[in-house]
Design goal:
3 domains; Rossmann fold; 342 residues; single chain; alpha/beta; three-stranded antiparallel beta sheet; extended; Endonuclease, Chain A
Length: 342
């Protein structure tokens, strides 16, 4: 007998590595979790309103209720991460999901540990098992684990005991790695000289720190003076990857008129005849308020000019800088066009 035929949908799903049954199960899980989250918020409103000094926000409550194997919270300093940790511990005890001895709260330094201990003691005083919660630093808990397993409490490295010796030792370690590994040496320089430099807050006007030949701006590793810190980030990345470029070179076709000077694209890569414009656009596609003129229309004019003259144009934006996509996109484009990157 001939083999049974399978539907076109099955073949497409297989090609896309999709499992309809698994997707349906995931959808059921999500729907169940959404219903459960809403129910818990209503049933435990008094808990979430009183477990900390101020009622928890929606995001904090969601973080408390979610008991996945891992939950990552990304937030700025002072926005309530410690409150969320304490509240989540209280929620787990209140719902009898764990015993107090099964809860471990870790912080980076002793001051943060003391704050956590004080908050647990003050806010979870009526929660059964709260006195069994362990609060420690990461290194303190690590030493405890080693001591418990080996029967001997390990000593800290001598350079961790004396103040200032830790920075000196890290410097020696970096130098040793750089001497032995050329790739590490390059990566370290790129990290400290490119990614380690502040580019400021998007939309805020940056104060120039260099002046030369009538141009104010920010000096790059190549000695150029560029208009923004974001452009300096791009220029420094190009310099340390040995990518030849020219900053604000006159466009190859004449555009100057009585009212407009000759067009000068931000970057030009002579090896691959590629122009590169870096636009100060945010996620909404708009420029900062303090920018003069119609910046969006100017960008449209540049795109149409390159299209009309059949010259290659690549774009990056401020939003891509903030998300980390700009330099990776640039590297991909350069490699695709045959540019050597070291």
């Amino acid at each position: 007998f001939p083999a049974p035929t399978r539907s076109t949908d099955f073949a497409i799903n297989k090609l896309l590595n999709r499992n309809p049954a698994l997707e349906e199960l995931r959808s059921d899980f999500k729907n169940h979790n959404d219903v459960f989250r809403v129910m818990q918020k209503k049933l435990l409103k008094s808990l979430f309103d009183s477990v900390e000094n101020n009622p928890l926000t929606e995001e904090q409550i969601n973080a408390c209720i979610c008991m996945d194997s891992s939950v990552q919270i990304v937030a700025a300093a002072g926005s309530g991460k410690t409150s969320t940790m304490v509240a989540k511990a209280g929620y787990a005890l209140h719902q009898k999901l764990v015993n107090g001895s099964q809860i471990l709260l870790l912080a980076f330094n002793t001051n943060a540990v003391q704050e956590l201990k004080d908050r647990v003691k003050a806010r979870l005083v009526n929660f059964e098992g709260a006195d069994e919660i362990r609060v420690d630093t990461f290194h303190g808990f690590g030493l405890h684990v080693i001591a418990t397993a080996s029967g001997e409490k390990p000593s800290l490295a001598p350079w961790l005991v004396q103040s200032g010796q830790d920075v000196e030792m890290i410097g020696k370690i970096i130098k040793d790695l750089s001497d032995r590994n050329p790739k590490f040496h390059i990566d370290w320089n790129i990290f400290r000289l490119v990614y380690g430099r502040d580019i400021g807050r998007r939309g805020a006007a940056s104060e120039p720190d260099a002046y030369e030949n009538g141009r104010r701006g920010h000096r790059t590793a190549n000695g150029d003076i560029v208009k923004s810190k974001e452009e300096r980030l791009i220029a420094d990345w190009l310099f340390y990857h040995n990518v030849p470029y020219v900053y604000e070179r006159d466009y190859e076709h004449k555009t100057a008129t009585e009212t407009h000077r000759q067009y000068q694209p931000d970057f030009y890569y002579p090896d691959i005849q590629l122009y590169h414009e870096h636009f100060a656009f945010g996620a909404d596609g708009k420029a900062p308020d303090h920018f003069d003129g119609d910046y969006v229309e100017g960008a449209k004019w540049k795109r149409s000019l390159h299209a009309e003259m059949s010259t290659a144009l690549f774009e990056t934006t401020s939003h891509q800088i903030s998300t980390g996509a700009a330099l990776s996109n640039l590297e991909s484009e350069l490699r695709k066009r045959g540019q050597t990157i070291r």
